[in-house]
Amino acid sequence: MGSFKQDIHETFLGFSESAQEKWDDFTQFLRETWPLLTLLLLILIGIWLYADPPPPRHVMLATGSPGGSYEVLGKKYVEFFKKKGVTLELVRTMGAQENLDRLSDRNDPLQAAFVQAGIDSANEAKGIKSLGAIAYDPIWFFYRGPELKSAESDSIGVVMRHFVSKKISVGIEGSGTYAQSTKILKAAGYEKGVQVLNLSGSDAVKALQAGEIDGIFIVDAYEAPNVQVLLQDPSVHLVTFKRAEAFAKLISYLHILNVPQGAFSLPRNFPPTDMKLLATTTNLLIDDRMHPAIQFLFLEAAREINGKASFFAERGEFPSFKDSGVTESPVAVHYEKNNYPLLAAYFPFWIAELISRLVFVFLPFCILGYPILQSLPSYRTKRMQNKINRLYSSLKSLEQELLNGFDGQQRDEYLKRLNLLEYQALNIKVSKRLSGDYYALRASIDYVRNCLNRGVHPYQFDEVFDLGSGNMRY
Fold this sequence. Notes:
Elements: H1 2-51, E1 58-64, H2 69-83, E2 87-92, H3 96-104, E3 112-116, H4 120-124, E4 128-144, H5 156-161, E5 167-169, H6 176-187, E6 195-197, H7 201-209, E7 215-219, H8 225-231, E8 236-238, H9 244-250, E9 255-259, E10 275-287, H10 292-305, H11 330-338, H12 349-374, H13 377-405, H14 411-426, H15 435-452, H16 461-464
Helix pairs in contact: 1-12, 2-10, 13-14, 13-15, 14-15
């Protein structure tokens, strides 16, 4: 039993001594190579800052025309970014096409935009990536006048026959509403016969309520102010897409939204029957040069803001990484698989970003720097040899001083200087390769000390050496 304990104790001592030896070697390495390590680290940090600069603190996001849901949504993003220490500036535009044009312009400072899926030019635009879909955008067709019977509203093409010689708004050219409404009409087989106007969302709503036009297409979220105004107006009616499945088959990016009877207004029982709506999605598009950390921030904002349950979306349904029509950013692909970086759950955004960036500097530095420098024995050997040579130089200077002007009364002072040299020598940690030089230095110091400790002046040979007989005198 005692032998077993002794074996354990000896094993522990062996590990302890080995660890202490490694630690001593490592600390000695740091003391010897810190100038070179500092230089390498500064070079690495410089390259890192040049190749991967820190994320910007100001970002521009295009929302579209005023009065739409994108403007309301953008303000929520502004608040989220503000909490993370980043200023998000909202930019009003004329719609999706302007957003795409500005994102693809390499000289434009705009970096992100809300754009509806299904904009044909989005697939052709260069320098643009997608961070996924973040919300549904239902396609609404509101009209005034007598409410169409169920059979009459079975097809949007049939509905349009009731508006021959009447006015409808299909949105501003270049807007998402214009792109979706024209595709719906074309798919339904309707092309001409109605007087088409190109009004913005807010202008179209005002014109419809004033009786200046007879119908409008709006592609916007349920919560959008323009949509809510018309849903609450009893004089305005809404067309259902009874053949929604057929439209979704023909236009791949469209989704079908089911609205139960009375869901918009129970007191009015609106809609009076179950109805179906078609919807596209809002895509968060970015300049592909956007800093990855800002991309992660947008994705996290989408998860927190758009990931909540809404009138049409279930909790956690967005951000969604399908049906975008635009190539996804590699950051979005990473986010889809791994979610937000772990550090962000425990540190503020800027600290988490700094730590994650520094890891990519210090980790390779620590993994590669130490063994590489350790593999340069000539560097370490030269530094050790220089220390030994400096002490040899000091010893030689002292001995030359003794030869040129020895003063017996200063013997103690000479010995103190030798003791200091010996102390400095004892504090040099050298490799086995230089052990011979190290002990030769200490032996030389002892030799000079022994000469000083003799009873006569050891450095004036005419006093201790008989020139006539050639013998030493004692």
